[in-house]
Each structure stands twice: as structure tokens, then as C-alpha cells.
Amino acid sequence: MISGSVRIALQTALPSADPVAPFVEGELIVQFKPQVSLQSLGRLSAAGVELQQVRLLGLERTFLYRASLNRTDTLAVLAELQRRNDVAFAHPNYLLFSQATPNDPQYNNQRWHYEAIGLPQAWDIETGSSNPVTVAVIDGGVVAGHPDLAGKLLPGYDFYSNAADSGDGDGRDNNPEDTAPGSDYHGNHVTGTVAAATNNGLGVAGVSWGARLLPVRALSAGSGTLADVADALRWAAGLSVAGVPDNQNPAQVINMSLGGPVPCSHAPALQQAINVANSRGAIIVVAAGNSNVEASTFSPAGCSGVVTVGATNAEGNRASYSNYGSRIDLMAPGGEPGGLQVVSTLASGQYGGKAGTSMAAPHVAGVLALMKSKKPSLTAAEAISLLKETARRLSAAQCNRPSAGDCGAGLVDARAALQRLNTPPPRSLVLSASPNALSLNTGQSAQVTLSIARTNFTEAVALSVTGQPAGTTPSFNPPSPVTKDSTTLTIQAGNNPGTYTLVVRGSASAGGQTIEAETRITLTVQQPPTTPPPAQNIQNTRIYFDAVLRETPTLSLLLDFNPTTITQTGTQAPYTRANLSTTGLVGYRISAWKDVNNNGTQDEGDLFGWYRVGGQIATVMPDASNINIVLEPILSTTLTREKWLRQMGYPAR
């Protein structure tokens, strides 16, 4: 008699889906681990549902899948995917929205919002024509025929993939025209603020007169999906996207006046797209969001590697709707729905006002274009540092928050920033963490890449961390002080569940000056599940005892066509198998299979395990005990019983 137990391996928790954030029902973004064979992933089974692969995203080993599911069923399938150990991450295809509050056009005077950031004086220093900068606007598309955009537009692309509501009758194509039914021309409004033709005796002025505009459509009628936005971001930065011609005009500055109410930690596909765009030198400016809440709860506003911009009104105060908090870098004019608004281009030949953080962000994108036009060698770290150093800080009362820091460095000052470019760049330090939000079980640890951007100094940076869970000690590799441009920070979860804000501080001494910076990481520690969810119930697991008659010169088997079936529920159960032959054989090879998707085949999405010793499939005799088997999700690389038998020419069942 052989006896032992069979149990389901607990899987490391991945970030769960945000419970309230809007997403496309039935659509999931899945990134697989490097060892997985991508050829096997055209179809994906999970929780008894067959998912169809829609397309490969620009990110490595990342696909968009679709099935006909409601919201509840989508989340159930997602939970099953997140438990698979071949999945690097899985999350819904979140919806992102333009961050504007539309209103009827009623204002045609731009002076209030341009004078607020010192633009008339800045234009005396630089108009953006010295070394024209390419600025991409990822939004709802452009109205190419608008006279104030004549001669300004580079060949863009339409990444909005849902032909049903795009208004142009097809999906992705090389025409980024705003064709959305009933469009409010949000994308054209943002585009005009960045760089409408200026000093031409017509319409409105753009912030950067000489900037070249790269229109990239990823929204329609004010919304779009994370999958489309992530691809659009890669393309705008000059990176390849499957099925799309390469961008011949990579953007130095990218404006994304869009977002959704989901933390960036729940949208790793977006963070990865930001990371690779940053690696190409692109400066990414994003709207903070219009919900009067913490900007860190929105994406991309809460992501690392972006310049997050909140909105002010004509009185110089934080606008009533503007998000706030530690992720705000700068403020810029956004107006109020019931007051003075930002005026820019709308439909062809038309102009009007809008209010929102969508309107604030392109002010900053335009100022960055002015700065890089004046100094083409300007790095992202130097530019952001200059903008923060020269910004006019808002008081706590102006920010309408307990702390003025909730409005970042303050209101951007274009004149002061450009004037500072006339002097040697100040020594500055910028720290950024990727990821900047983690979710770990107690006892786990994770690694974060800490980027160190120095301006005008090369000395080592001393690093420290505060705010970590009690009893844990974060460590850096290479250790502090760090002479390189990055280091890996290892964070331990400890044993006390809760939410922690880790503050990473850096300090360097150069030329008698102390240069300091900090960045923050949100760590959520939770108790690991004591049992897997119902989808991983041990019940109906089949245990096979295949007899090995001889091993040489060829393997000869007597197959088990009547496996032992587990009837107990839960995550672990004992088993026994009596009346096994003891003569004329070498021993038994034992395997266990749970047909999760109930299709009668040992395939991905199911649970399977061999009895192994030292990692190798073991052969045991009929009097063996403590033959314990661990069930794990089947990967494309897993040697299941069916694969093993097919390799030797045996029938599996």
C-alpha cells in the first residue's frame, strides 16, 4: 500500500484589481514570465473560461485577452490568472479618461493663464524656435485642418482600437484625426495650448511657438483603454509596437492629459511603458486628475517617472477639482468650470475655454519645450529640478490643504526657469523608485530600482530609508554611499500588516554644498491567505500510479487507467492505494491532476504535480509511505503525465 498526502501550493499574491476602477468587461492584460513559450498562448484557459488573444502589446511578453464576460466574471478569471506561477502580472484593461471639465466656449482671452506663469516675459528669452522640440500629445486626436495648427503637425498615429465607437469606421491606422461622434475636441484643445501657431495674427497663442506637434490618438469621446495608451506611449517615444510602422519623429516631451481612478501599483503595464519611454529620454507630463483626492490614487498621475501637474484657477489657488498630495510635482493654470477657463483651439477654425488638470499639463509640456529649445542638452532630471526650484510655492491656504506640499513645488514660472538656463546649471539630485508601490504578504521581500539623477556633480550619494515596518532593515545593492546612477533597494514586509510610507532620502556634498532629495514608496503588507480560494479546491483530484516494468534498454510501463480520486474538500487531503502489485516491476511513478477547466486534458490552467525526490520524478515501491505531492498550476513548460506518455508513444488515458 502506498500512502501520503496531496496539497495545493499557495501562490505569491499579485496586486489585485482595484475594486471600483472602471475597466473594459471581459478584457485582461497579462504578462508572462520569461520561461513561458509564447507560441502556446494564442488561447488561455482560466477558471473554466477560454480567453482569446487579441494582440501582443508593445511590452515584452504582454498580451491583451478577451472573453464575453461581465465585471464579476472578469474579476473571477483575473483572480485565477494571478495565482498562476507562469504569470508575471495580470490586470483588467482599465479605462482612462480625458481630465477636463467641458463647458460651452465663452472666453477668448488667454492672458490670465499665460501671465500667471510669466509667459510673456519668457517669450522675450525663448519662443521655442531656436531648436524646435517635438512634443507628442497622447489624447483624443487632432483637427488637422485647424488654421492655428497649420504647418505644426508631424505624421501621427491612431492607436484607438475599438472601431465601433471611433467614428472613423476602423481601428488603428495612420490618421490621428479626432473623428469621435459628438467630440468636445479635448485633444485639439490640449494640442493648441502646447504649440498653436503664434504671432500669426490668428486665433490663440501656444506656449512654445516653435514646437513640432506629434498627434497620437488613444482616446475617443473622452475615454480609452490602458492597452491602447501604453502602446501609444511607447510609439511616441520611438519604441516599436507590433503591427505599427515605426515613429520617425520620437518625442522629447510627451503630454498625457488623461487618467483613471486606479493606483499605478494595480496597472504595471502602464508603469512599464513609462519606464521604457523614460529610458529613451522622453519627459512625460501628466494631468493629476479632477476628483479633489490624492493624486497617488490615479494613473498615470501616481506612477513613477512622470511630471504630475495639478491645476490652479485665475485667483492663483488650487482649482476646486484638482487632485493633490505627495505625487504632485507642479501646478499650472487649469481654470474653473464656472469661472475663467483655459482658452485654446477646438473644432476647425473654432476656439473656446475648458477647465481641468488636462488644461494645466500642456502648459508645463510647452514650458519644457521652450527650455529644451534653448538648451537641447537639457536632461529630464535637470529640467524637472529647474522647474521645481523656480516655481512659485503656494501657501497652505492657496492649496486649500493642511500642507502647502500637497501642491508640490508650486506654480510653474516659465520666465524664471528660462532665466536660470542662462546661468550654469545648479547642482541638483533627483531620486525615483520603480515600482513606487508594493503589495506583499507578511514575511516576503521585494526589490525596487532606485534611480539617481545628478546634475552638475558626480559625488557619491548617501542613502537612507525611514518608515519601514518594525523589525525590518532595508538594504541597498550597491550599498550606500552610491557612486552609480542606480541601486537596488530590498524591502522586507515584516510581520505586521498595514500600509507604510517609506521615505528614501539621498544626500551628497559637492563644492561645499549639500544636495538633497527624497522619494517615497508605498508598501502594503497583508497576511497571506491561509487557504487558496474555492477555485483551487482539492476535491476531484486524480492520483495516478503508473507501474514501471523496466527502465532499460527502454522504459516499459503498465498505465493506471483507474486513478484514485480525492473526495475531500479543502486544500490538502490524505490518500492511500492498496492492492498494488509487488512483482515483476521496478516501482511506481505517481502523479496528481486537478482538471480545473473541466476539459479532460492536462493543460494550462489546471493543477498538476509529480512525486519528486531532489527535483526528479521518483519511482517508489508499493510499501512506501509519506509520498506527498504538491499541486501547482500547469505552465507551457510543465512536464505533465500526458506529455510524458505522448513522448514515449503511450495513450494518456
Written account of the structure:
Belongs to the peptidase S8 family. This is Peptidase S8 and S53 subtilisin kexin sedolisin. Keywords: Hydrolase, Protease, Serine protease. InterPro entries: Fervidolysin-like_N_prodom, Peptidase_S8/S53_dom, Peptidase_S8/S53_dom_sf, Peptidase_S8_Ser-AS, Peptidase_S8_subtilisin-like, Peptidase_S8_subtilisin-rel, Peptidases_S8_13. The structure is a single chain. By secondary structure, the chain is an alpha+beta fold. Helices cover 16% and strands 30% of the residues. The protein has 11 helices and 34 strands. Strands 1, 26, 27, 28, 29, 30, 31 and 34 form an 8-stranded mixed sheet that branches. Strands 2, 3, 4, 5, 6, 10 and 12 form a 7-stranded antiparallel sheet that branches. The chain is elongated, with a radius of gyration of 29 Å.
What would the keywords be for this entry?
eight-stranded mixed β-sheet, protease, 11 helices, 30% strand, Peptidase S8 and S53 subtilisin kexin sedolisin, Peptidase_S8/S53_dom_sf, alpha+beta, seven-stranded antiparallel β-sheet, elongated, 34 strands, serine protease, 653 residues, 16% helix, Peptidase_S8_subtilisin-rel
Short description:
Keywords: Hydrolase, Protease, Serine protease. This protein has 653 residues and is α+β, with helices and mostly antiparallel strands.
- In terms of DSSP E residues, the strand content is 25-35%
The rough form would be described as elongated
**Given the helix and strand composition, which structural class is it?**
alpha+beta
The biggest sheet amounts to: 8 strands, mixed
Mean pLDDT: 88
Percent of residues in helices: 10-25%
Write down the Rg. Answer: 29 Å
Family: Belongs to the peptidase S8 family.
Domain Fervidolysin-like N-terminal prodomain: 21-93
Protein name: Peptidase S8 and S53 subtilisin kexin sedolisin
Organism: Meiothermus taiwanensis WR-220
